[in-house]
């Protein structure tokens, strides 16, 4: 091969490289514009609905008119039940796995495996399970309690994974020096490791809340459809996501309020996200050695 | 000053000393791979024992066995005997919390907790049952004076300990350990992560503490000059076939001037290491 | 100076005070046992509810019956399996290259601020609720497809929405596995004068292969399990589609649509389809585990 031939090939190669580079910029551009399209559409459709009255009044005419007050209350109650149950179990499990389980312990391995599978279970299957176990077998019926408990099962793997990551990010020196001062592992955990793992805990909490608030399929057959203001945890309560689903699928002329509800849902999620990154940023600053 | 301490000491042959801690056939493994093997020696009371040797010869691993900190390291197993009075430290029934309170450890890298300077000292105290806050405050003042940190930090006791300089952090860690009134101090290269000036301050501090409270101190160092300056007894660890061994243990004078082992001779004269 | 109590180094009698750690560990073990047992509970209850119909008509009925008509005792799930399979395959085929390209973009093409901005965007995309995707698909995408080829609610709409939903999964996993490619490899490639595309194709992709496989398995799981979005845009007609413009019904949508009024054997049959979904997910989890073990 003579020299000019080599040059030709190289130029071709560079030409190809340029085309590919262009393609690599094009895909993110498309994804970004789709994202803006979705978000823009929800904002454009929902902004007109969004006002104080919408947030504080009950839905009328199966949701075509009126607001979403009881739905917000139900959503919060379901979330509350979910967190009250999943936080202690999740954090406890994460602490056990990260701090008190040797690498090859059979119990730890078994729990990890089962959580890996649990993380992949489709939400509709959680819905079936919640319906059969909480609603039927435990006799809780279609209620906020059933829905919250079902969601608790669902967010467990998320909470556990994030808390574990947070704990394993705490430097090993803290554990060693604490032990060298004769401090019990319980106190070490309580006064040293948990505060230091707070960013991880917060991230887990936020991801869990995000998943729980966004969930629909697991709730249809556990917390139910009723859009009245709940008076107890055994009442059926409609979550915000189910409200959107119902308005857009089953109620003709419900699109406007569906837009409004979707905007509220997205704003809540964005707000939680922002709080989390603010908090974890703040904590990680004070932790830096 | 160094001289006077050495002169004040009774010079015993190892066979004659009253040992505080007897270590017999001690070996430590990380995932079945030995870090050091078959170490047998006796730690004399109220003296400074220096452990020297090239890095990676198991000096630090040896130290963490003495108060069972090795329990915390995943994959780490220890075999042999460590006798303290009538207690075998390695027995699974030993109360490790009390053990570690009475055998304090200073690490190479100063590692105060991410709390206020004061809380770094009061938190362990509370844990060990000092309930009265005035008493705790007195102890804080006392130990910070002992390590010469009081004048530097007395106006900022509530500041985060991580804002201190490296040397100050290490002195805080020493103060935190002293507050618990340990009987034996283990020090794992306490000066090597510090700049020369802080290093000198910490070294002086060790000698002062030794004189004031008659601690038994076991110090790991790879700084031979330092060992010469402060130690009463010296042990040499060396890597043999990929695993640490105890080569020689002798009173410092003998160790540095008339060692028995050829390897020690070469090491002391700077031919090896 | 205080006088510390001389603590005995020997085992202590005061059970509560000195077994604090011991108590904590047992409490934690109890909590972990609850967390670990959830998946068994799910499997158990699904089996329990599915058994009546399985005993009565057997497994083969779900593949051999004439149609899906539980009222008339025929339980053919095959059209729904096609629905789930086709939407899943379409979405995975589209999302995988897009996701990998997105991750490569973040690592090797975009300047730092743009890359981190794009990552943040992908994370936000992952956080959008599926019902919102479904709603957007229903009011924006479906009318557009309808103009192209009625009725609009179709396999195509399902694939499109699903692609968007699983894109963040594969992107984030691929991103993480590209981050693990040792920088020495890239230096070596640069030293040999490889073009950037050559480096990616011959060095980066092969060494991140197992991570990418895991990503594909994860996104497949998400695509199979997704309910609300496909329920809202796919049209839900029980049929094996002939073209991508035909409406389909997925297994998940079938459960969501009929659970509300299903009784006895009908309800039981829905649990059978739930069991089928769970089975696929377990197989995928095992596959992910094997890929992981292969890599290490």
From TrEMBL, chain A:
It comes from the Bacteria. Residues 72-280 form the ABC transmembrane type-1 domain. GO terms for cellular component: plasma membrane. The chain crosses the membrane at residues 20-40, 68-97, 117-134, 140-160, 192-214, 258-279. One of its GO terms (molecular function) is phosphate transmembrane transporter activity. The keyword Transmembrane applies. Its main location: membrane. Keywords: Cell membrane, Membrane, Transmembrane, Transmembrane helix, Transport. It is found in: Cell membrane. One of its GO terms (biological process) is phosphate ion transmembrane transport. PROSITE patterns: ABC_TM1 (PS50928). It is a multi-pass membrane protein. Belongs to the binding-protein-dependent transport system permease family. CysTW subfamily. This is Phosphate transport system permease protein PstA. It comes from Hyella patelloides LEGE 07179.
TrEMBL record, chain B:
One of its GO terms (cellular component) is membrane. It comes from the Bacteria. Coiled coil: none annotated. SMART domains: AAA. It is an enzyme of class 3 (hydrolase). GO terms for biological process: phosphate ion transmembrane transport. PROSITE patterns: ABC_TRANSPORTER_1, ABC_TRANSPORTER_2. SUPFAM superfamilies: P-loop containing nucleoside triphosphate hydrolases. One of its GO terms (molecular function) is ATP binding. This is Phosphate import ATP-binding protein PstB 1. It comes from Hyella patelloides LEGE 07179. The gene is pstB.
From TrEMBL, chain C:
It is a multi-pass membrane protein. The keyword Ribonucleoprotein does not apply. SUPFAM superfamilies: MetI-like. The chain crosses the membrane at residues 21-47, 80-109, 121-142, 154-173, 185-204, 269-291. InterPro entries: MetI-like, MetI-like_sf, Phosphate_PstC, Phosphate_Transport_Permease. Residues 81-288 form the ABC transmembrane type-1 domain. GO terms for cellular component: plasma membrane. It is found in: Cell membrane. CDD domains: TM_PBP2. It holds the Pfam family BPD_transp_1. GO terms for molecular function: phosphate transmembrane transporter activity. Belongs to the binding-protein-dependent transport system permease family. CysTW subfamily. Part of the binding-protein-dependent transport system for phosphate; probably responsible for the translocation of the substrate across the membrane. This is Phosphate transport system permease protein. It comes from Hyella patelloides LEGE 07179.
């Amino acid at each position: 091969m003579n020299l000019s031939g080599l040059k030709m090939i190289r130029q071709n190669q560079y030409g190809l490289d340029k085309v590919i580079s262009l393609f690599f910029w094009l895909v993110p551009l498309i994804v970004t514009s789709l994202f803006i399209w979705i978000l823009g559409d929800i904002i454009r459709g929902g902004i007109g609905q969004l006002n104080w009255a919408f947030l504080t009044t009950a839905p009328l005419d199966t949701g075509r008119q009126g607001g979403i007050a009881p739905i917000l209350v139900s959503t919060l109650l379901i979330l509350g039940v979910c967190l009250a149950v999943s936080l202690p179990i999740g954090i406890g499990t994460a602490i056990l796995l990260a701090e008190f389980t040797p690498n090859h312990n059979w119990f730890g391995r078994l729990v990890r495996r089962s959580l890996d599978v649990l993380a992949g279970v489709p939400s509709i299957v959680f819905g079936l399970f919640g319906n059969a176990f909480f609603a039927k077998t435990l006799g809780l019926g279609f209620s906020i309690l059933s829905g919250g408990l079902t969601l608790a099962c669902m967010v467990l793997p998320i909470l556990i994974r994030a808390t574990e990551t947070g704990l394993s990010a705490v430097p090993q020196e803290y554990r060693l020096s604490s032990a060298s001062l004769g401090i019990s592992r319980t106190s070490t955990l309580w006064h040293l490791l948990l505060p230091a793992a707070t960013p991880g805990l917060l991230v887990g909490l936020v991801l869990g809340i995000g998943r729980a608030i966004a969930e629909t399929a697991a709730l249809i057959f556990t917390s139910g459809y009723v859009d009245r203001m709940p008076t107890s945890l055994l009442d059926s309560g409609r979550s915000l996501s189910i409200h959107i689903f119902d308005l857009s699928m089953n109620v003709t002329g419900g699109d406007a309020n569906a837009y409004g509800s979707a905007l509220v849902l997205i704003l809540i999620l964005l707000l939680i996200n922002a709080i989390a990154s603010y908090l974890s940023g703040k904590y990680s600053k004070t932790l830096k050695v | 000053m160094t001289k006077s301490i050495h002169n004040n000491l009774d010079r015993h042959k190892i066979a004659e000393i009253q040992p505080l801690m007897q270590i017999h056939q001690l070996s430590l493994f990380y995932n079945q791979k030995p870090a050091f093997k078959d170490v047998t020696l006796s730690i004399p009371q109220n003296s400074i024992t220096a452990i020297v040797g090239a890095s990676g010869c198991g000096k630090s691993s040896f130290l963490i066995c003495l108060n069972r900190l090795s329990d915390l390291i995943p994959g780490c197993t220890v075999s042999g005997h460590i006798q303290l009075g009538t207690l075998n430290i390695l027995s699974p029934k030993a109360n490790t919390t009390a053990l570690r309170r009475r055998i304090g450890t200073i690490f190479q890298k100063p590692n105060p907790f991410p709390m206020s300077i004061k809380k770094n000292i009061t938190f362990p105290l509370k844990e060990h049952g000092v309930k009265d806050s005035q008493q705790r405050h007195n102890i804080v003042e006392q130990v910070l004076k002992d390590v010469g940190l009081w004048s530097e930090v007395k106006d900022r006791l509530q500041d985060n300990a991580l804002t201190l300089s490296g040397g100050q952090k290490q002195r805080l860690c020493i103060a935190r350990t002293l507050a618990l009134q340990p009987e034996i101090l283990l020090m794992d290269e306490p000066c090597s992560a510090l700049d020369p000036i802080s290093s000198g301050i910490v070294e002086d501090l060790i000698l002062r503490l030794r004189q004031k409270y008659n601690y038994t101190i076991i110090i790991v160092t790879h700084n031979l000059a330092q060992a010469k300056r402060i130690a009463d007894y010296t042990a040499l660890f060396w890597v043999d076939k990929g695993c640490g061994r105890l080569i020689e243990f002798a009173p410092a004078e003998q160790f540095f001037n008339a060692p028995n082992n050829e390897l020690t001779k070469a090491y002391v004269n700077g031919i090896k290491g | 100076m205080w006088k510390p109590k001389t603590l005995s180094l020997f085992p202590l009698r005061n059970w509560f005070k000195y077994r604090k750690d011991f108590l904590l560990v047992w409490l934690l073990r109890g909590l972990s046992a609850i967390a670990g047992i959830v998946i068994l509970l799910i499997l158990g209850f699904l089996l329990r509810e599915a058994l009546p119909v399985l005993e009565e008509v057997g497994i083969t009925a779900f593949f051999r019956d004439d149609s899906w008509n539980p009222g008339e005792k025929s339980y053919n799930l095959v059209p729904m399996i096609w629905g789930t399979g086709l939407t899943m395959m379409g979405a995975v085929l589209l999302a995988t290259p897009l996701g990998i390209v997105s991750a490569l973009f973040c690592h090797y093409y975009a300047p730092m601020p743009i890359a981190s901005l794009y990552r943040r965007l992908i994370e936000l995309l992952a956080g959008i609720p599926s019902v919102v995707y479904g709603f957007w698909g229903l009011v924006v995408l479906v009318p557009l497809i309808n103009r192209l080829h009625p009725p609009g609610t179709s396999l195509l709409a399902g694939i499109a929405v699903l692609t968007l939903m699983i894109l963040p999964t594969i992107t984030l996993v691929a991103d993480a596995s590209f981050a693990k490619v040792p920088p020495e490899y890239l230096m070596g490639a640069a030293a040999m004068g490889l073009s950037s595309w050559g480096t990616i194709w011959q060095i980066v992709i092969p060494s991140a292969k197992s991570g990418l496989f895991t990503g594909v398995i994860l996104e497949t799981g998400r695509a199979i399990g997704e309910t609300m979005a496909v329920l809202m845009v796919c049209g839900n007609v029980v049929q094996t589609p002939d073209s991508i413009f035909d409406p389909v019904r997925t297994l998940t949508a079938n459960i969501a649509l009929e659970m509300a009024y299903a009784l006895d054997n009908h309800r039981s049959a829905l649990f059978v389809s739930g069991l089928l979904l769970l089975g696929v997910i377990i197989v995928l989890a095992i596959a992910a585990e094997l890929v992981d073990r292969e890599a290490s």
